[in-house]
C-alpha cells in the first residue's frame, strides 16, 4: 500500500513541479558557488597581479581582499536563500502529499 501512495505522490504533476523547481534552484546556486570559487582560484593562478592591485591609488588594501571575502560571504547568502526557498517548497509538497493521501 505504501508503494502505491508513494507512486501516486511521485506522479502528481504539482509535486513534480515543486521538486523540479527546488532541484533547479539547488543546481543554479551550486553553479554560482563553483564559478565564484574557481574564478578566484584561476585569477590567483593565472593573473595574480589583478588581485594585488590596490583598490584606490596609494591605498594599501588590494582587490584580492574584498574578492576573497565575497567568495566566502556570497555562498552563505546563497545558502540562506536556498533554505528559505526549500522551506516554502517543503510546505507546498506537504500540502500535495496531504491531498494525494486523503
Topology:
Layout: H1 2-11, H2 13-46, H3 48-52, H4 64-100
Tell me what the structure shows:
The protein is rod-shaped, with a radius of gyration of 22 Å. Helix 2 (13-46) runs antiparallel to helix 4 (64-100). It is 84% helix and 0% strand. The protein has one domain (2-100). It has 4 helices and no strands. It is mainly alpha-helical and 102 residues long.
Tag the structure with descriptive keywords.
single chain; mainly alpha; rod-shaped; 102 residues; 4 helices
Tell me briefly what this model is.
It contains four helices and no strands.
Derived from helix and strand composition plus strand pairing, the structural class reads: mainly alpha
- Distinct helical segment count: 4
What would you report as the Rg, rounded to the nearest angstrom? 22 Å
Q: What is the share of helical residues?
A: over 70%
What kind of assembly state do the chains in view correspond to? single chain
Please write the string of helix (H) and strand (E) elements.
HHHH
Give the total of beta strands: 0
Amino acid at each position: 500500500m505504501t508503494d502505491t501512495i508513494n507512486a501516486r505522490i511521485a506522479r502528481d504533476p504539482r509535486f513534480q513541479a515543486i521538486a523540479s523547481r527546488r532541484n533547479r534552484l539547488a543546481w543554479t546556486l551550486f553553479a554560482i558557488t563553483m564559478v565564484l570559487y574557481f574564478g578566484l582560484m584561476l585569477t590567483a593562478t593565472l593573473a595574480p597581479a589583478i588581485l594585488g592591485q590596490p583598490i584606490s591609488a596609494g591605498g594599501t588594501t588590494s582587490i584580492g581582499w574584498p574578492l576573497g571575502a565575497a567568495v566566502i560571504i556570497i555562498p552563505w547568502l546563497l545558502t540562506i536563500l536556498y533554505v528559505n526557498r526549500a522551506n516554502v517548497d517543503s510546505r507546498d509538497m506537504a500540502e500535495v502529499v496531504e491531498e494525494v493521501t486523503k
